[in-house]
């Protein structure tokens, strides 16, 4: 008769053998090629080969560097082949126009050092970089470009100069900077507007006063017979209307509006 204790030992021994057998079988299965393939898949992949940048991407890297005012990246982009003269009519013009629009003085300086044309024309702005800076009230760029010799009276195809643009924004500082560098005051655009017409239309009394002090014609008429006073009345610029009237300004077209204005003041 087998002792119970010995029987238990036999059972335990059988279990160990069975366990060892299962372990060996599992081990054998794990070492099969299928599992080896899975192990290979878990390994980190090597870095993909970088493709060369396209011309468009290189050009865009230059514009991005200009927008970020990053001089070193501007130089790198040019070394890679970016064109500092390329005009993009849909996105802020040339790189220098972009620098002018965004007020990036350091970028503008870097572009000029690399050979950018300070008076380049852009279809996007129909103007020079100075015109773009004046239009956007970027006084620091206006000052920088003027100090570097930008053409102060370079006009767009319709005859508007940087002085027109600065006056149309009522930007006293830009107007002063332009005048200090010899900008013309009584310059007439294709439709007949002078900087004084522009300033009156936006109601900028400080700019109106400056322009008159520099000799602008108070009652100059445009191609439609409008004086600066007419412009101020058309856009309902009450302060400019009062100032121009005190200086002797008159209307040529809006007599009815002027009479109504007189009645309202009484």
From TrEMBL:
Matches recorded under InterPro entries: Ankyrin_rpt (IPR002110), Ankyrin_rpt-contain_sf (IPR036770), Cul2-RING_E3_ligase_SR (IPR051616)
Pfam family of the protein (one): Ank
SMART domains from the UniProt entry: ANK
Keyword Cytoplasm: no
Segments annotated as ANK repeats: 91-123, 125-157, 158-190, 191-223
Sorted UniProt keywords: ANK repeat
Protein name listed in UniProt: Uncharacterized protein
Species annotation: Nezara viridula (Southern green stink bug)
